[in-house]
Amino acid sequence: MVIFGSRLYGKVDAVPGLGYVATKFGHINFVPLIPLEGWLVVAEEGNGWRGQAIGMSGKSVLVAWARFLFIVVGLGSLAFGFIGSTSHDSGGILLPGVLALACIGGLIASYTWKWVTHASPERALEIAREAGVGEAGLEQLRRMYLMPEAAAAVAAPAQPWTPPES
User: Which segments cross the bilayer (predicted)?
Assistant: First the structure.
């Protein structure tokens, strides 16, 4: 049975309080093949989503394809490693094992590294502008992204230097 249609892949650039960027792909058997359009997803509902169409994100497209390749190559190298381990040559399992571990590491990194999963302040503002967020919303984003720096400055004010007593 062949399953085809479109769905979102490549979840990247999350913006707190706004949503995240993903790409709508044409797929066959859930393999992301053809990127169709970029989306700012503001809510997921069952098998669907709500959001705003935005410009295509190259980062999202590359992440979607990379995640798919990590899975395919990782599973393939594991299978090859198990087949190779049944032979009498134990040296043949090293390369597939290393490749499988690298793919697992790459897949985990693509879901956990902040530079992939979260938008920078500049990118967050760009996404919000593309989605048609008004000036008040843009100002709120600016304040939100500046808040951690401002909070750190208030929490630890600079102290004057005093020479040690002799």
Answer: 64-87, 93-113
d(CA 38, CA 36): 7
pLDDT, mean over the chain: 84
Q: What is the DSSP letter of 31?
A: E
Q: What are the boundaries of each domain within the chain?
A: 4-151
Q: ∠ CA 24-28-34 to the nearest 5 degrees?
A: 40
The pTM for the full model equals 0.77
Task: Specify the DSSP element, H or E, that contains 62.
Answer: helix 58-85
Q: What is the DSSP string of 66-118?
A: HHHHHHHHHHHHHHHHHHHHTSS-GGGGHHHHHHHHHHHHHHHHHHH-HHHHB
Asked whether 103 and 62 are in contact (CB, 8 A), the reply is no
Alpha carbon distance 145, 160 (integer Å): 29
150 has a pLDDT exceeding 50: no
pLDDT at residue 165 greater than cutoff 80: no
CA distances to 9, 77, 106, 123, 139 from 69, rounded to whole Å, are 13, 12, 10, 26, 39
Integer Cα distance of 140 and 155 in angstroms:
22
